[in-house]
Amino acid sequence: MLKPFFVYQNKILIRINPEELVCLVAEKNYTKLFLTHKRYYLVRSTLTGILKKLPPEMFIKVHRAYAVSIFFMDKVDRDQLEIGGQSVPISRRYYTSVIEQLNIIE
Question: Which residues are in the HTH LytTR-type domain (predicted)?
Fold first, then answer.
């Protein structure tokens, strides 16, 4: 069990378990944290700042504006991956590092 983290929503701290975090999407100085059960929170922090506080072995940055949990990745293609039927882009810059961080059996 990983240590939970907290986010402010309407001046109240809400606990989030890293195991529930599916995807992070950056929007300028804000980041949307998408959780299981179609929930999300918008926080005023950059994607890079949030990733520094999360377990690096669990989350992979796949694009300038996207990071995903390896536990929710269904399919990985050269330019995109799939999470629960949703497509997430993989930039050419991050593709090699994404593949290196995955446990691949050939």
Answer: 6-104
Q: Write down the residue that tokens 């050419």 correspond to.
A: 92
N- to C-terminal Cα distance for the chain? 29
Q: What is the reported pTM? A: 0.91
* 3-class secondary structure, 51: helix
Question: What is the residue range of 74's domain?
Answer: 21-99
In a 3-state reduction of DSSP, which class is residue 100?
Answer: helix
CA distance 34 to 18: 11
- Inside any domain, residue 29: yes
pLDDT by residue (tens digit) across 50-92? 999 999 999 999 999 999 999 999 999 999 999 999 999 999 9
SS3 content of the chain, % helix, strand, coil (to 5): 25, 45, 35
Q: Each residue of 8-30: pLDDT tens digit?
A: 999 999 999 999 999 999 998 99
Q: Phi, psi at residue 16, to the nearest 5°? A: -130, 130
